[in-house]
């Protein structure tokens, strides 16, 4: 069992060159079911379940990323969001619900300063788990952080108390991921 999970984690790679399509025999409903299951089962502080996600596709995907492109002044800064708009089939937007964090801070004041970090940790767990899962489905992707631009582009489509954490931009890999190198970083055991 753990070998399967480790294989999925190792297979997860950053793939920027995408084709705006889903793999054969994979549909948007499959992506939605995958993301929904991960959001449901990702651990969170005190089982608070503050992770949220939406999937952008079709015209909404294109218009949100077009808004991001148009919000950036630098021509070089426009390149990545333009490629997301034009090459990704979909974007999974990860959020944390600030009301959940604030409620925890009120209920457990001794941990109040730690709860925002705990929410970030839980969101990161949902992001990497989703990325590994979609890789197993034949999708490629890359994680982006155009958080403020994306939130502004979504406007009233999402609650104001949702903080954008990241965007996982997905599609069929147009080219394989580059070679991955590793640093020497042994895990030690202290007995």
TrEMBL record:
- Where does the Nitroreductase domain lie? 10-171
Protein's UniProt name: Nitroreductase
Any one Gene Ontology molecular-function term assigned to this protein's record: oxidoreductase activity
Superkingdom classification of source: Eukaryota
Q: Which family does it belong to?
A: Belongs to the nitroreductase family.
**What is its cofactor?**
FMN
Where found?
Cytoplasm; Nucleus
User: Which GO biological-process labels does this protein carry?
Assistant: cellular response to oxidative stress
Q: Does the keyword Coiled coil apply?
A: no
A Pfam family that this protein carries is: Nitroreductase
Matching SUPFAM superfamilies: FMN-dependent nitroreductase-like
Enumerate the InterPro entries for this protein.
Frm2/Hbn1, Nitroreductase, Nitroreductase-like
Q: Does the keyword Nucleus apply?
A: yes
Q: Which residues cross the membrane?
A: none
Q: Provide the alphabetized UniProt keywords.
A: Cytoplasm, Nucleus, Oxidoreductase
Any GO CC annotation of this UniProt entry: nucleus
């Amino acid at each position: 069992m753990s070998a399967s999970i480790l294989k999925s984690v190792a297979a997860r790679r950053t793939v920027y060159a995408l084709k705006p399509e889903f793999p054969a025999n994979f549909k948007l409903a499959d992506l939605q079911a995958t993301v929904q299951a991960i959001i449901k089962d990702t651990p969170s502080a005190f089982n608070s379940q503050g992770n949220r996600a939406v999937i952008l596709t079709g015209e909404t995907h294109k218009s949100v990323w077009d808004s991001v492109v148009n919000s950036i002044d630098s021509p070089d800064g426009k390149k990545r969001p333009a490629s997301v708009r034009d090459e990704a089939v979909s974007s999974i937007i990860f959020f944390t619900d600030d009301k959940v964090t604030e409620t925890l801070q009120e209920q457990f004041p001794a941990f109040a300063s730690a709860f925002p970090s705990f929410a970030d940790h839980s969101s990161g767990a949902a992001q990497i788990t989703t990325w590994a899962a979609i890789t197993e489905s034949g999708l490629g992707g890359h994680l982006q952080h155009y958080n403020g631009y994306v939130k502004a582009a979504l406007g009233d489509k999402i609650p104001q108390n949702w903080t954008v954490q990241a965007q996982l931009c997905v599609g069929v890999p147009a080219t394989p991921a580059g070679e991955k190198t590793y640093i020497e970083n042994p895990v030690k055991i202290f007995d």
